[in-house]
Structures are given as C-alpha cells and as structure tokens.
Specification:
The chain has 64 residues and is mostly helical. The protein has one domain. 86% of the residues lie in helices and 0% in strands. The chain is rod-shaped. Keywords: Signal.
Length: 64
C-alpha cells in the first residue's frame, strides 16, 4: 500500500504544472504519502520484532 502511495505521489509531481501555482498541492501529497509509508513500515517492523521476541521467549520456556 505504501508503495502505491509513493508511486501516486511521484506521478502527481511529474504531471504537475509549476506554472499554474498548484505545485504546493502536489508537494503536500508527496509528503503525506511519504509520511504514511514511513509510519506503516515502522508499525510493521514493530510487529515483526514483537512476534520474534514472543517466539524466542516461548522457545526458551519450552526448553527448560
């Protein structure tokens, strides 16, 4: 999903006409998409780390 946001923002920046004065909208969209992707990836990494720690903890408990 985050790749779609980044691709869409990239497309908007490429097709935006700087002469019109609406460039701020394209830049805002690109920044929001980038921030959304970063938040998503951070959350995904936290979930993976938590799952790995839980798995390691269960392995340690079953080994004793």
């Amino acid at each position: 999903m985050c790749l779609v946001c980044i691709a869409f923002a990239s497309w908007v920046l490429k097709t935006a006409n700087p002469q019109v004065g609406d460039m701020w909208k394209a830049v805002l969209l690109a920044n929001l998409s980038a921030l959304s992707a970063i938040r998503y990836l951070r959350k995904d990494v936290k979930v993976e780390v938590a799952a790995g720690q839980k798995k390691q903890h269960l392995t340690t408990l079953s080994g004793t």
